[in-house]
Amino acid sequence: MNRRQFIKTSLLAGAALAFGGGLFAATTEGPAPKIKLGIDVLEAEKFKRLRGKRVGLVTNQAGVNSRGESTIQVLHTRGRKAGVKLVKLFGPEHGIYGNVPAEKIVQNQIDSKTKLPVFSLYGKTRKPTPDMLSGLDCMVIDLQDIGSRSYTYVSCMRYVLEACFDAGIPVVVLDRPNPLGGLKVDGPMLDDKWQSYVGLYPVPYVHGLTIGELAIAATRENWLTLTKNARARGRVDVVKMQGWTRAMRWRDTGLRWVPTSPYINSPEAVEGYAMSGLGTQAGKFAHTFRAADGKLTFPFRWITYPKKNAKALVSTINSYFIRGLTALPREIEKTEGAYLAISNWNALRPCEISFHMMRQACLWSGENPFAALKKSERELFIKHVGSEAFFNALARDGAKINIRAWYDLWDKQARLFQVRIKKYWLYA
User: Fold this and answer.
1) Contacts (Cβ under 8 Å, ≥6 apart) of 238
2) Which tens digit of pLDDT belongs to each residue from 364-379?
3) Chain-wide mean pLDDT for the chain?
4) Which fold would CATH assign to domain 259-410?
5) pLDDT tens string 284-307
6) How far apart are CA 2 and CA 317, in angstroms?
7) Mean pLDDT of 144-151
8) CA nearest 137: which of 50, 54, 57?
9) What is the CATH number of domain 38-252?
10) What is the DSSP letter of 148?
11) CA distances from 94 to 152, 156, 265, 299 (A)
């Protein structure tokens, strides 16, 4: 069988898995539950928590209600009629409309739609300054997280909590689903030493919390950097969802996904980020096909490696025998790769594939690319992965590293974390 025959045959064999019974399948067990997001509940309560207050709002394009209406507009129009005065907007990485490329600094500006001032919380000023907070009675946070520690919106939330607590301004978090569900914990814990904007909480890489639960845990577990007085007067109020349960992934909610950033353009990309994001930090593996027109295809799900065809990629990935994961061959515009298909989410340890990719990069490169990283590259790698001890072992041992042993250790640590953190769960 030649290479193209292999690809065609494997695609036909895997079609039911990838499209019919797996990744893109619609729920077939009846209509999706009706989910009320935090913003929906807030409005159903007639905005009583914010009535009569001058409000700041931290949000972006994914801050919408269950009907797809922007939280900015909901508070600016219907909230105003109920006595809420929205006076300032705050944007995380990518800005309030999500149209700013990663790493580009957003400038403070005036929102053309509401004529409200917009303050950037990305770049040099990641924590709101006293001037930014001046005149506010309350700060509202409505950000859609993706359940992986290195996604920066939860880091933005931490800095907002700290600044508001210091200023004596209460914070209201409008809760949203964790698109990976609330039962999955996976990957390494974060060393305190390596806290950064791509990891500000001592949690497993996949943490299993909603953004509201994370805010409560951060406050009560003393994960925030606060003075004693600020800690005493700090207040966070989470507006709980209605209808969401921990077993739900995004596809179970019946909600439309609004891209949270350019590469996270679908729930499938959310899952892929947890799977291959760490494995493509260094070592020449790539995770997305970008067409000539800039369109992104299968972000974090389509894996390539220089000079390796689909057959080699698929057979190698499948030889790891990762429960719940199957690699399928793909060809896009004459470029071959392996598609990461989920066959059993409950059995899958999503981050596991990334660490096998690291070891494989050592085998395929003929050297140890991690030992050759520059100081800045090494530090960025550790900040994402979370474990300096693992990096040191990988840089030392290369292809000889025992990924299974490391992963079994992290699995135990993640489960212990979940047991300890359950007291902050807001949903069954």
Assistant:
1) 38, 172, 173, 175, 212, 213, 215, 216, 426
2) 998 899 999 999 999 9
3) 91
4) Aspartate Aminotransferase, domain 1 (3.90.1150)
5) 999 999 988 889 999 999 999 999
6) 20
7) 98
8) 54
9) 3.40.50.12170
10) B
11) 10, 12, 13, 17
